[in-house]
């Protein structure tokens, strides 16, 4: 299959038009006519090689929404014309204890990332969703409910599931005080989901200008983290803090906001280690945990939940030639709240 897309040819290079080929359909594969691709901050980290080990040329994109354009001979889950989504991984070993529990994101042999990785054949580089087509095994794609704005669904495939999964795992709901650190692409989905699940929601933000939006998204409270007085007022308050901050920060300031037995979940990946003071944890039997996206069945559960509750992302739909500007603006926390590329403009 011939594909047209956008790639960074070397580390830090601006994204430019790039053509490549994908495999012909295997019996369990589906081909996707990609309509929209979200811009996740992880795309930027990888293009800029902030996590190391990046592979170029790189076609980023793991928030993919489209339509099934062809199916392999043994496909049973999808038909041509179905709405289909692809998230952060496209395969896993299918055999380890994580895979067997539906936690493919934690595959013990490593999940196969949608881009900037290698297929399980050990040689074929994976290329992401900033392009007009994808080929994927049907079991690693999900169905998108009808009736939602497809462009605004795309970010659910990473930003959505990445916040939904820890909220469910740590049982956010009525009576729970949940805080979301960072009101970006991930954070704003955390606010929407925590609110929909019935929790009391606080946004912890370094951008005072985001307060009105935060409240509109469902936040009950808004804390400006650069104001020591506001931090002090919120000490020992939260049962659960979801940390989506993409840049380096002092984690101890935030651990102090947890109640006894509270948990701070690391989700953002600044690429530098945290310096945790022992006292920040033991003075409240606090936990610091991590969470990464979600498995395929949970991804489908989240999309179904979104279909029932009419939840999508808040997006700025852009044309392909705006993508480099969108990267710059995302790094400055200047996006409401996710950029999505309209693939028709490639
Ligand atoms: P984003 O849209 O850029 O949002 C990040 C937010 O962090 C910003 O909106 C900002 O919120 C806050 N922030 C940025 N710089 C800051 C600074 N210097 N000090 C304090 N706060 C700052 O990014 P995203 O797409 O939501 O991704 C967030 C992070 O999660 C990235 O590191 C990404 O790689 C990672 N990620 C992890 C997973 C996972 O599975 N664990 C999945 C996807 C992405 P305020 O303006 O409100 O302060
Ligand atoms: Zn992502
Ligand atoms: Zn596995």
Features:
346 residues, Quinone Oxidoreductase, Chain A, domain 1, Rossmann fold, 2 domains, 7-stranded mixed sheet, 11 helices, 24% helix, globular, binds zinc ion
Give a short summary of the structure.
The chain folds into two domains: 2-158 and 314-345, Medium-chain alcohol dehydrogenases, catalytic domain (Quinone Oxidoreductase, Chain A, domain 1, Alpha-Beta Complex), CATH 3.90.180.10; 160-290, Rossmann fold (3-Layer(aba) Sandwich). The model has no long low-confidence stretch (mean pLDDT 97). The protein has 346 residues and is of the alpha/beta class.
What does the model show?
The chain is of the alpha/beta class and about 350 residues long. The chain folds into two domains: about 1-160 and about 315-345, Quinone Oxidoreductase, Chain A, domain 1, CATH 3.90.180; about 160-290, Rossmann fold (3-Layer(aba) Sandwich). The protein is built from eleven helices and 17 strands. Strands 3, 4, 5, 8, 9, 16 and 17 form a seven-stranded mixed sheet that branches. The protein has a six-stranded parallel sheet with strand order 12-11-10-13-14-15, with helices on one face. A two-stranded antiparallel ribbon has the order 1-2. A hairpin with an 8-residue loop joins strand 1 and strand 2 (about 15-20). Helix 4 (about 160-170) packs across helix 5 (about 185-195). The two termini are about 15 Å apart. The structure holds NADP nicotinamide-adenine-dinucleotide phosphate and zinc ion (2 copies). NADP nicotinamide-adenine-dinucleotide phosphate binds next to helix 1, helix 4 and helix 5. One zinc ion binds near residues 40, 42, 62 and 158.
């Amino acid at each position: 299959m011939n594909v047209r897309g956008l790639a960074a040819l070397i580390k830090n290079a601006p994204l430019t038009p790039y053509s490549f080929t994908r495999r012909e359909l295997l019996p369990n594969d589906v081909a996707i006519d990609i309509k929209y691709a979200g811009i996740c901050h992880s795309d930027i980290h990888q293009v800029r090689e902030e996590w190391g080990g990046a592979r170029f040329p790189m076609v980023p994109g793991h928030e993919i929404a489209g339509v099934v354009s062809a199916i392999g001979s043994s496909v049973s889950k999808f038909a041509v014309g179905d709405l289909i989504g692809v998230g952060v991984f496209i395969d896993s070993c299918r055999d380890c204890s994580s895979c067997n529990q539906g936690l493919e994101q934690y595959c013990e042999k490593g999940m196969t990332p949608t881009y900037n990785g290698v297929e399980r054949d050990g040689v074929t580089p994976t290329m992401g969703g900033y392009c007009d087509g994808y080929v994927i095994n049907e079991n690693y794609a999900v169905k998108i409910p009808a009736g939602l704005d497809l462009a605004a669904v795309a970010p659910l495939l990473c930003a959505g599931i990445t916040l939904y999964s820890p909220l469910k795992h740590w049982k956010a709901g009525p009576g729970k005080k949940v805080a979301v650190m960072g009101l970006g692409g991930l954070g704003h989905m955390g606010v929407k989901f925590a609110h929909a699940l019935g929790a009391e929601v606080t946004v912890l933000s370094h951008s005072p200008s985001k307060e009105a939006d935060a409240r509109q998204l469902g936040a009950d409270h808004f804390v400006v983290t650069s104001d020591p007085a506001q931090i002090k007022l919120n000490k020992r308050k939260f049962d659960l803090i979801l940390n989506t901050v993409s840049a380096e920060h002092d984690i101890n300031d935030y651990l102090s906001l947890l109640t006894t037995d509270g948990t701070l979940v690391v989700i953002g990946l600044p690429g530098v280690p945290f310096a945790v003071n022992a006292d920040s944890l033991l003075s409240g039997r606090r936990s610091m945990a991590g969470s990464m996206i979600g498995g395929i069945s949970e991804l489908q559960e989240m999309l179904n939940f979104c279909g029932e509750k009419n939840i999508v992302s808040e997006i700025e739909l852009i044309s392909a030639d705006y993508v480099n500007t969108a990267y710059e603006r995302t790094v400055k926390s200047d996006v409401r709240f996710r950029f999505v590329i309209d693939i028709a403009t490639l």
